[in-house]
Structure formats: structure tokens, C-alpha cells
Design a protein that fits this description.
Helix 9 runs parallel beside helix 10. The strands form eight sheets. An eight-stranded mixed β-sheet has the order 3-5-1-12-9-10-11-20, sandwiched between helices. The protein has a six-stranded mixed β-sheet with strand order 7-15-14-13-8-32. The protein is 29% helix and 26% strand. It folds into three domains: 204 residues, Aldehyde Oxidoreductase, domain 3 (Alpha-Beta Complex), CATH 3.90.1170.50; 327 residues, Aldehyde Oxidoreductase, domain 4, CATH 3.30.365; 138 residues, Aldehyde Oxidoreductase, domain 4 (2-Layer Sandwich). It has 746 residues and is of the alpha+beta class. The longest helix is centred in the C-terminal third of the chain and has 28 residues. The model has no long low-confidence stretch (mean pLDDT 97). A hairpin with a 5-residue loop joins strand 17 and strand 18. It starts with 5 loop residues before the first helix and ends with a helix. The site of hypoxanthine has 12 residues, from helix 9.
């Protein structure tokens, strides 16, 4: 039997654009705004309609339902009607016989705008009162009365840039007419139910007339949690009007121009410490550049506030977030979901405090790490905390103090080449911060030949959720994984699914699968107990055991026996994460099922004449609970790290007056193999997690944040060259920016 992974390596795995094209297929192309803000005075589509091969041109007028795609806040149109708010905003869609004809016809559309003033900077937007929704503050202790008690109080500004997802498969969708107005959508989405719900709203029909089916994605990283929806809805709208299948695949350039990215942030921080370096108080005001519509911005901002103290216990905290409305493509979910932006700031504050107090960063970090019994500023108790364990283990494994001394020696003896080392602890909350989303369903079917078919709400996007679910089912049913097939994710088989996001894919769906499998095992045991006349039945390694002794009844025989006894071999199950709750009025609760911890040590070398650098080595001790699959988890740890390093170093989005000048992979640089450091991953031992399926721990997002360590290792190297010059806490730290720091070139 072919397994789940080898089709990838053979290039046989099917993505949306590989689905054999149905007869009568129409290709869609999107006409988008070329100005950042303005009124649409006139829109003339007649020439485009008469262009060769064109079947129809869709505008806002063609939307039979509600022209609205906003999920958290209803503030975004599918197709702009009267006003445009960003460059790249869809206004019209051409449906044509070929892709080329559709793209040609786009050029025939005539539009007139009345330009309006535009805002691109988050602080400017905040000053003008342009917020997506009201600001939000989390607080604990009494910050104001604490500053006076501190030996050191430091203030500063930290900036972090956006990030393009660069999933290999661009946004893609294919919609096919069924009968009686029903539509089947194949979408490259993390959120089939969102696609289903929004499409039904656009078309003004019931959700049961829309089926969304997803086999796998060629990467998503949060970029398809909300922003895959519009392309699917556009295709469905095309089907509605033409009764023909419609396909839309964005080119890389269109994808970069028309879809959201990680939110850039600008933050004011203030940190207060006692003489020994205990952090007594921390406050921050986060100005999130939300873009032109809410998308997931408010939820992302929430996670920034939750993770604003990273892995540290701080008794007095006040953190405020402003979701600032600007005329840039709406920013969206990206691995870490605002957490990295929050954690970057506290690390800047600590690095800054180290410079002022002279206490080494690593000492400040270690002395303030979380431990059991502490409380987070949002009210949750710290439980099963592995912050100190992972920190001290990585310090030991890397011989940190010795390496630091060696690096100091190296820097003394080398004038133009400097090395730097840093430590980066992480703490990341696992669960959707919107508690209601923490639910999942599963459908487990056992065919009468003993083969098994499983459907869940989980989306496979390369993170290995399918293989983990298969392992969970194999273990629970005591059969070989080869007997189990993981089906595509269909809104007709498992309903009301949450996006596969917040690193919860396996936690939620895997648990539902475990429950469903146990239901089937119970039924099978009952069936065989009846036949053998005993209750001392167990199933192990594909055989029935009676009183601890193996019988002749194999899994196949067992299933057939149950079938003949008319036993239900199909089980549905539901899982809702227990113990979580959050009161958004009080801003207190227990939002996370648990936290993921770990620490990384990073070493870099900077060429101080050129500003170029190499990331030499990253060693991490990561808490993956009881790992379900070592190789998958290793892949997530390494991949997340590299993506985080990219965000901190070479990935720079350049927007000028709302125009994205980094709209291709020649202008937007991502880490490649040569840039990748030597990576050593150690998973923390004896780290069984009582809060997740089979004692595992979510790993999709947390390792991303180790990338922040690279920024500080580079900073340390640069400071060894220029001790005299003040450091600006601004990322990404591109070689260009570093060069400008190292030399007074401006
Ligand atoms: N890994 C791969 N290969 N591709 C992806 O798109 N997305 C990340 C992470 N790892 C992603 C990935 C993000 S943003 C999340 S939230 C999790 O996977 C989602 O999957 P999980 O919940 O199953 O971990
Ligand atoms: N993480 C990811 N996606 C989400 C979340 C979250 O916490 N909340 C809503 N969507
Ligand atoms: Mo991940 S940003 O929660 O899709």
C-alpha cells in the first residue's frame, strides 16, 4: 500500500491546480484597486465583457446575498462597491474560457477614482483615531505604584516588520456546480467551514448547499486561515451565475499583492527592575498595523497581549494594544499569531535593561523565568512549567558560559569579524484564544474488510497532522497504520469545524478520533465477548486476547464477526477542550489548555565591513510533550525556527505609499539552505503532557519564536564592533540595516 508521505516525494500529491480540469471550466482573473484609498466614480466593464473568450464579468452588483467576508468584524467587502481601501483590493472578476483570456480582459476594465487621503503608519492611524476596534488592555498588580520602587526603570521603542507567508501553493480554488443550486468547492484553505459559511452568505443560501472539500495544502502558515475564503467565494459566485465550474489560482505576484501578511508592530515599552535584576514591572503599548480591514487582527492583537511577558513572571503588568487601520492589504494570521510580536518586545526590554544595569541578559532571563504557582497577567495559573528546565538544560548542553567567554576572546582578537551568542526562552499558550473555537469532530468508519477510513476537521498543510491522526487511530484500535486512510476534509462529513490553526490541529481532532475509535473498540469487544461468552477481552496487535491469551480472532475476523452481528462500525465523536474559559470584560481567565516551553541558544558571525552575517548554530531544548512522531516534530522545530529567523533577519517587506515593492521572490528574500544554520534539537525528556492526546504537545507554532534569538545574537556581535553607538530595537535586521549601524553611512 502506498503510504501518506511518498506521493509527496514522487511529486504525485494532488493540489488544487492538479485536479483534472472539469469540462466547461471557466478561469477567473481578479481586477484589483491600483490606489490605496478612494471613491469609485465609475466602473466600465463593457469592453472586458466583449473581450475574446469572456463569459461574464462579476462586480459587487452580481452578489445575490451579502457583500461581506469579515469573520470577526463585518467590515470587508468581497468586491469593492463604492470605495477602495488598499492597493490589491478586488473590484471585479473576469470569467473566461482560458486563463490568458481572463487576464487580457482585465486590462479592458476602465475605472475612475476620486483619491482620498491614505494612512500607512500605525502610530499615525492611532493619532487620527483610525482603529479597527477599540484598544484592549490586560493588567495585573499595580504598575503605577511600582515604578517608584524600582532600582532601574527603562523606556524604549521596539519595531517589528511584517512577513510574507510564501506558502509554495498560492491561493487556489475550484468550484463546481452540483444540482439544484448546490456547489462543491475545492479550496486551499485552513478553514473549510469559514469558506462554507462566508460563501453561503455571499450567495444568500443555506450552508447545506455549499460543500467544501480539502485534500491538502501546499503550505499555509496562517495565510489561509481567513484569506483563502474570498477566492473560493469568488469561484462560487462565478458558478452561481454561469452554472459552469470556475477555477482561480493566484499567481505569486497577485498572491503577494492581494493577500495579507504578518502584522508589523511599533511598540513603546517600559520595564522596571530591582537591584538584583528581578523584573518588578512591565508595560507596553502595542501599535499593530492591522491593514484596511479587521480580518483576524483583533484576535492576533489579543495573543500579542497574552504573550507580552513571554516566559517570565512579572508581578505588575499593563499591556495595551491598538489595532490601527491603515490603507494596506489587511494583515492576517501568521505562525505565532501575534505572539512573536509580543515576545520580541519583552526581549528588547530585557536586552535594553541589561545594557543599563550591566547584568548579563542571560542572568536577567534566568532569574525571571516562570515557575509553577506563578500567575500570568491574564489570570491563568502556571502549571507543569518547563521554562527553567529547558533553560538550564540548553545552557548545560551548549556550555553557554564557556562559549560566551570564547566568543569574547574571539571578538577581542578579531577586528572586523565579530561573533555573537544569545539565549531565547519561549512560552506559548496552546488553544484558540476564542474559547468556543476549541472544538472538533471526527468520523471513523471501519469497512467490513477491516480497513479504516477517518474524517476530521483537520487540514493537512505539511505539518503532519494526518500522519499523527493515523498514529493515534492505529494505537487506539491496536492495528497497523497501513490499514487506515485519512480522508479529505469535507464539510459534509465533519461539520462546524474550527480552522486548523493555533497549533491545535492534532490536539483537537486527534482527541475526537481517539474518542471515536474507543467507541468502536467497545462495540467490537462487546460483540466478541458475546460470542466467546467472557468479558476478559482485549485487542492487541491486531488480535483478540481472551484472559490475556491470544485467540485465533484477527482484526479482520473480528470486524467481519461484528458486521455479521449487525454492529455499527461507524462512529462519530466530538471533543471540546476542558477547563478553558475567558472573561473578555474582566480580561481574566484560563484561555489556554497548557503552554509549550523551550529555550534556544544561537551563535552568529558578522562581517563588520560588509554587514553580512552567517547564523552558525542554533541549539534548542524544546518541550514537545511525549512526541507522537519524532520526525514530524523535528521538522516543525527546524522549519519554525528558520521561518522565525527569516522574519528577524532577511525578510523585509517594503511598502511605500501603500505600494508593495517586494512583490516577488527576487525582491523579497527568504532564508535558503545556505543561510540555514546547523540546528540541534533536543526534545525535553519526561515531559508527558496531561492536557493533550496521548500526552503529546502541540508544536506547530512555538519553535518559530526561537528565531528571535538570532536578532539578539546579531545585536551582540554588532555591539562588539560598535559599543559607542546606541542600538535601535528594530527588526528585520537586514544586512543593509546592520551595515548602517556598523558604519556611519547615512
Ligand atoms: N508546517 C507546515 N509544513 N506548513 C504549514 O503551513 N503552518 C503552521 C504550523 N506548521 C504550517 C506548519 C501553523 S501557522 C500552524 S497554526 C500549525 O502548523 C497548524 O497545524 P497544527 O495545529 O496541526 O500544528
Ligand atoms: N490562533 C490562531 N487562530 C485563531 C486564534 C488563535 O488564537 N483565535 C482565532 N483564530
Ligand atoms: Mo497558525 S497562524 O494559527 O494558522
Amino acid at each position: 500500500m502506498k503510504d501518506l508521505i511518498s506521493p509527496h516525494t514522487r511529486g504525485e500529491s494532488i493540489y488544487i491546480d492538479d485536479i483534472p480540469e472539469p469540462v466547461n471550466l471557466l478561469h477567473a482573473a481578479v481586477f484589483a484597486s491600483s490606489i490605496p484609498h478612494g471613491k469609485i466614480i465609475s466602473l466600465d466593464i463593457t469592453k472586458a465583457e466583449n473581450s475574446e473568450g469572456v463569459c461574464k464579468v462579476l462586480t459587487a452588483k452580481d452578489i445575490p446575498g451579502e457583500n461581506q467576508i469579515g469573520r470577526l468584524i463585518q467590515d470587508e467587502e468581497l468586491l469593492a462597491e463604492k470605495e477602495v481601501d488598499f492597493i490589491g483590493q478586488p473590484i471585479a472578476v473576469v470569467l473566461a474560457e482560458t486563463k490568458e483570456q481572463a487576464k487580457q480582459a482585465i486590462k479592458q476594465i476602465k475605472i475612475e477614482y476620486e483619491e482620498l487621503p491614505a494612512v500607512f503608519d500605525s502610530r499615525e492611524a492611532a493619532r487620527k483615531g483610525l482603529l479597527i476596534s477599540s484598544s484592549r488592555t490586560l493588567t495585573i498588580g499595580d504598575i503605577e505604584s511600582t515604578w517608584g520602587k524600582c532600582a532601574t526603570v527603562i523606556e524604549g521603542i521596539a519595531e517589528s516588520g511584517g512577513q510574507e507567508h510564501v506558502y509554495l501553493e498560492t491561493q487556489a480554488s475550484l468550484a463546481i456546480p452540483d444540482e439544484n443550486g448546490r456547489i462543491i468547492i475545492y479550496s486551499s484553505t485552513q478553514a473549510p467551514t469559514t469558506v462554507q459559511g462566508t460563501t453561503s452568505k455571499i450567495l444568500g443560501c443555506d450552508m447545506n448547499l455549499i460543500e467544501v472539500d480539502v485534500k491538502r495544502l501546499g503550505g499555509a502558515f496562517g495565510g489561509k486561515e481567513d484569506q483563502a475564503t474570498q477566492w473560493a467565494a469568488i469561484c462560487a459566485l462565478g458558478v452561481y451565475h454561469t452554472d459552469r465550474p470556475v477555477k482561480l489560482i493566484l499567481s505569486r505576484r497577485e498572491d503577494i499583492l492581494m493577500t495579507g501578511k504578518r502584522h508589523p508592530y511599533s511598540t513603546d515599552y517600559k520595564i522596571g527592575l530591582d537591584e538584583e535584576g528581578k523584573i518588578l514591572a512591565f508595560s507596553a503599548e502595542f501599535y499593530q498595523n492591522s491593514g484596511a480591514a479587521a480580518d483576524l487582527s483583533t484576535a492576533v492583537l489579543g495573543r500579542t497581549l497574552f504573550h507580552a511577558t513571554n516566559a517570565y513572571y512579572i508581578p505588575n503588568v499593563r499591556v495595551t494594544g491598538y489595532p490601527c487601520k491603515t490603507n494596506i492589504v489587511p494583515f492576517t494570521a501568521f505562525r505565532g499569531f501575534g505572539g512573536p510580536q509580543g515576545m520580541f518586545v519583552i526581549e528588547c526590554a530585557i536586552a535594553h535593561a541589561s545594557e543599563v544595569t550591566g547584568i548579563p541578559v542571560s542572568v536577567l532571563q534566568e532569574n525571571n523565568l516562570l515557575q509553577d504557582g506563578n500567575q500570568f497577567h491574564y489570570g491563568q495559573q502556571v502549571e507543569n512549567c518547563n521554562a527553567k528546565r529547558s533553560f538550564s538544560q540548553v545552557v548545560k548542553e551548549t556550555n553557554f558560559e564557556q562559549r560566551k567567554e570564547e566568543i569574547e576572546d574571539f571578538n577581542t582578537n578579531n577586528r572586523f569579524t565579530k561573533k555573537g551568542i544569545s539565549i531565547m526562552p519561549i512560552c506559548f499558550g496552546i488553544s484558540f484564544t476564542s474559547s468556543f473555537l476549541n472544538q472538533a469532530g471526527a468520523l471513523v468508519n471501519v469497512y467490513k474488510d477491516g480497513s479504516v477510513s477517518i474524517s476530521t476537521g483537520a487540514i493537512e498543510m505539511g505539518q503532519g497532522v494526518n500522519i499523527k491522526i493515523r498514529q493515534i487511530a492505529a494505537k487506539t484500535l491496536s492495528i497497523k497504520p497501513e490499514r487506515i486512510r485519512i480522508e479529505s476534509t469535507s464539510t459534509s462529513r465533519v461539520i462546524n469545524t474550527s480552522p486548523t490553526a493555533a497549533s491545535t490541529g492534532t490536539d483537537l481532532n486527534g482527541k475526537a478520533v481517539e474518542i471515536a475509535c474507543n467507541k468502536i473498540i467497545d462495540r467490537l469487544k462487546n460483540a466478541v465477548a458475546e460470542k466467546l461468552g467472557t468479558n476478559a477481552i482485549s485487542i492487541e496487535d491486531e488480535y483478540v486476547y481472551q484472559d490475556g491469551k491470544r485467540t485465533e480472532i484477527s482484526w479482520k475476523k473480528l470486524v467481519n464477526l461484528a458486521y455479521l452481528q449487525r454492529v455499527n462500525l461507524s462512529a462519530q465523536a466530538f471533543y471540546a477542550t476542558p477547563r478553558i474559559h475567558f472573561d473578555t470584560k474582566k480580561e481574566k481567565g484560563r484561555p489556554f489548555a497548557y503552554h509549550a516551553y523551550g529555550t534556544a541558544v544561537t551563535e552568529v558571525t558578522v562581517d563588520c565591513l560588509r554587514g553580512t552575517y552567517t547564523i552558525d548554530k542554533v541549539q534548542m531544548v524544546h518541550d514537545a510533550g511525549k512526541s507522537l512522531n519524532y520526525l514530524v516534530d523535528l521538522g516543525q522545530a527546524e522549519g519554525g525556527l528558520i521561518q522565525g529567523i527569516g522574519w528577524m533577519t532577511v525578510e523585509e517587506l517594503v511598502f511605500k505609499k501603500g505600494i508593495n515593492y517586494t512583490d516577488s521572490l527576487s525582491t523579497y528574500k527568504i532564508p535558503n539552505l545556505y543561510f540555514t544554520p546547523k540546528i540541534e534539537v533536543t526534545f525535553l525528556e519526561d515531559a508527558e503532557n496531561p492536557e493533550a492526546v496521548l500526552k503529546s504537545k502541540a508544536i506547530g507554532e512555538p519553535p518559530f519564536m526561537y528565531g528571535i534569538g538570532t536578532y539578539f545574537a546579531l545585536k551582540n556581535a554588532a555591539r562588539a564592533f560598535r559599543e559607542d553607538k546606541e542600538w535601535e530595537y528594530s527588526s528585520p535586521l537586514t544586512p543593509e540595516k546592520l551595515l548602517l549601524y556598523l558604519h556611519d553611512l547615512e
